[in-house]
Amino acid sequence: MARVEQIERELDGPDEAVSSLTTKALMRRRMLRHKGFLFGATVLFSLVFLAIFAPLIAPFDPLDQSLARRLLPPVWSEGGVWDHLLGTDHLGRDYLSRLLYGARISLMVGIGAATVGLLIGVTLGVCAGYFGGWIDQVVSYLLTCQLALPGLLLAMSLVFLIGPSVFVVICVIGVLHWTYYLVVTRTATMQIKQLDYISSARAIGSSNSQIIFYEILPNLLNQIIVIFTLEIGIAILAEAALSFLGVGIQAPTPSWGLMIAEGKTAMFYRPWLVILPGIAIFMLVISTNLMGDGLRDVTAPENRN
């Protein structure tokens, strides 16, 4: 850290290599000092680790049923057993195992849907901002139509008509969540295309595709990453809502939203059936949001000097 401060004081010349090194060092230092980013990244990577290694960590198969073990309480409650640390559900399935495997579904849907929305929103936003004219008018019309539609109701209708599956849920949520990408990238592209280095690229004969891929998109990367992390949380909540309403992930596949729906009938005398998956959803969403907020703070233009 002292070395970084020394470089910061001595850096007066246009030495590009040293400047790049200093920028990376300062970025790492800001990340390590940002409590929200550290908390969010730690929780998120921990959940990703648990999801990836769920087959090795889970004590039971999440689909194994045993009516003799149904509705066992967690180990800290009266009647709990150590074989089932978080108890069992109404079919005798181990709740810890289902939570671990449910993390896989939530992360898969969150990352997949955010990626689909990224491809749609960034493509439309960059094209509208760069070319303008009738392309911008058409994209703006599509944006207005999208914002006017009830998102959850439309998602329920589409999943019900097509048929519920993990792939369908990812595609439907992604197709309905691209507006943030579009708004941000369109505005940023309109500003970037007026800068001198874009005019220089045109002067040396660069094509529109070369300017977009090599000049504009690299300068939009920070904004896109921040929106991507926030959209993961939105997609996870959307999947949980669809599964809770019965049109998302179908039984017996472990899904946190479906687990809440299955446990709601017994929530007054077996509250852990709702509380535990609710806490899992909360921790995953808040960690992605905190990580996104931290990236926004760390990469903000006023913090780059």
Describe the protein's architecture and organization.
With 305 residues, this protein is mainly alpha-helical. The chain has a domain at 103-255 and 271-303: MetI-like (MetI-like fold, Orthogonal Bundle). It has 13 helices and no strands. The protein has helices at residues 2-10, 16-33, 35-52, 54-57, 95-131, 133-148, 151-162, 166-175, 179-192, 196-203, 208-244, 256-263, 272-298. The protein is elongated. The two termini are 16 Å apart. Mean pLDDT is 85; it is low at 1-18.
Tell me which CATH architecture of the domain at 103-255 and 271-303 applies here: Orthogonal Bundle
Q: Got a strand count?
A: 0
Cα radius of gyration in angstroms: 24 Å
**Outline:** elongated
List the uncertain runs: 1-18
| Largest pleated sheet | none
Going by CATH, what is the homologous superfamily of the domain at 103-255 and 271-303?
A: MetI-like
Structural class label = mainly alpha
Instruction: Give me the number of helical elements.
Output: 13
User: What is the N-to-C order of secondary-structure elements (H for helix, E for strand)?
Assistant: HHHHHHHHHHHHH
CATH-derived topology of the domain at 103-255 and 271-303: MetI-like fold
Strand content bin: under 5%
Average residue pLDDT: 85
CATH class annotation of the domain at 103-255 and 271-303? Mainly Alpha
Helix share, percent: over 70%
Separation, N- and C-terminal Cα atoms: 16 Å
Describe the secondary-structure layout.
Blueprint: H1 2-10, H2 16-33, H3 35-52, H4 54-57, H5 95-131, H6 133-148, H7 151-162, H8 166-175, H9 179-192, H10 196-203, H11 208-244, H12 256-263, H13 272-298
